[in-house]
Amino acid sequence: MPEAPLLQVTDLVKHFPQGGGVLAKPKAWVKAVSGVTFAIHRGESFGLVGESGCGKTTVGRMVLRLIEPTSGRIEFDGRGILQLNRKDFGRLRRRMQIIFQDPYSSLDPRMTVEQIITEPLLAGGRPPRAERRRIAEELLGKVGLRGADLDKYPHEFSGGQRQRIGIARALCVRPELIVADEPVSALDVSIQAQVINLLQDLQREFGLSYIFISHDLSVVEHICNRVAVMYLGSIVELASTDVFSRKPRHPYTEALLAAVPFPDPHRNAAPFAMEGDVPSPINPPPGCPFHPRCRYAFELCRVEKPALIPAVEDHSVACWLNEDRGIE
Amino acid sequence: MSDCLLGIEDLSVSFGTPEGSARAVDRVSFALNRGETLGVVGESGCGKSVTSLSILGLIPSPPGATDSGRILFEGRNLLELKPKDLRRIRGRDISMIFQEPMTSLNPVLPIGRQVAEPLMVHCGLSNAQALAQAAEWLERVKIPAARRRLDDYPHQMSGGMRQRVMIAMAMVCRPKLLIADEPTTALDVTIQAQILSLMVGLKEEIGMSLLLITHNLGVVAQMASRVVVMYAGQVVEEAPVADLFDRPFHPYTQGLLRSMPRLGGRSAGHAHRLTEIPGIVPAITETLIGCKFTARCPHAFDRCREKAPDLFRIRQGQQARCWLKESPERRRADA
Prior knowledge:
With about 325 residues, chain A is an alpha/beta fold. Helices cover about 30% and strands about 20% of the residues of chain A. Chain A has a single domain, classed as P-loop containing nucleotide triphosphate hydrolases (Rossmann fold), CATH 3.40.50.300. Chain B has 11 helices and 12 strands. At the A-B interface, α5, α6, α7 and α9 of A face α6, α7, α8, α9 and α10 of B.
């Protein structure tokens, strides 16, 4: 029997109310996530990619219960987390942490680096101050900063260094799962490489699992073992990274990959520009969410939403074309 | 040379800060020919945006000050023009699109008015004529149902649509030069592809030149014919796009190209480690004697610390600011 997954997410749904008030009913519902299912194994990096508004960040936050799901199940290490009370969940929550995108707004400007990094410890056993300082110093070393930086404030650091501080904070309670929400998107190319390498080194050292949320396909391909592509609140394709860029099976993934400008001037095929915009998640189109922009769409796509089902081993697709044949 | 549309010569711009004067642009020179697309790449703080804002006289002064240099547009030095004369060029012969389409459009004016404005100011069209042309342009930049959306406000549109409005606004007077400062950075990749292909099409149609400022090497590879690489306020390398990607000379350019993960670059389950450029960009308030890249350079030797290198000619069309040109034996094979 294969090892049970570290995290199992089943049929996760989130609808945000829009408009309305304390007594008034909401005017509309933003269907941010509509039925997402996936599993993450120990030591794995799982990528969630998609364009803005596809629901990838909402999924990441629901896993940590920073946003409460509308419905669905989340199991961490075999235990359902949504029905846990505050105290029990607090204990479990130490095993999962988050790294945010913006290294500027995610650190309290009035706390020292030591206070920032060790704040998660205050929620648990509250080790004595000297011990906390020792832990903070060790963590700073792990993320490539110096012990002398402990008493500095966030404004004294560059963006890349601040992201390192955010990573040290996430590592502080020795988590098993880290949700990294666009951790390198705000960084310059040369600094981005430093942080990516750091995340990979730490994963090896601590046996971490990552949910890596990003819009940058090349970064996700580099760091992840498996990738889920999201569109308008649903996973449309889920595959191992090795086949993801070479043999995409969903027309959206295909278009997404084709749109990336390739850093090679000899490749003179201009990036393929797919027509149209992402539809509003308030009124998602009936049937397959991608059909209004899909160049292969036929009648069935307009009526019924295809399920995410395995096309070949380790490669699932939500597309009617894959029911009997691949995309040519 | 009549082929040259824009020539920046020896431009230095500095800003007064509490820590003293900080030089954001340090003796930058480059030229842009008619019909050409020149890419300017570099990371945050390298001076690429300040350079482009200087062209249009958009650097606030104080704290900004132009310390030296000339910006020649069709032979006239823009830095010496009276504000009135510069206004006549800005928005008509030279226009600009910015990174953030939300903050660069006026939130309280309907988009039709905003697109029509340059036509009324520069081309003397009447309100009705200008609005009619604005509608045409909005159609051209592929805004669906453009005629019905003339009275829409920017907040009613998506990011991609707003950037299309910006482009229409920049193009209505058929400029000779379009400066695009990170035009697609805030956009999703499929929308980016739409905007880039739109820009290529319009550029061909109007025959304008494009100064494309970006940090995205993929965008540069697809769009530009020549590239200027900036680091810490200086031009460190300039080359035709193929040479820059095939035979980058400056260690910084090489580092940038290597540090980037490439799609499809994963080999059978094993991702290679990215080559990082160690360290961080020096603060612009720091005074450095030698080459500004020394602290991060894998090849640095004594001379780099002692004296700042000039731009050396590497081959036809390519130059780099690096002492390795004179001491090629210092280049370590592995780095």
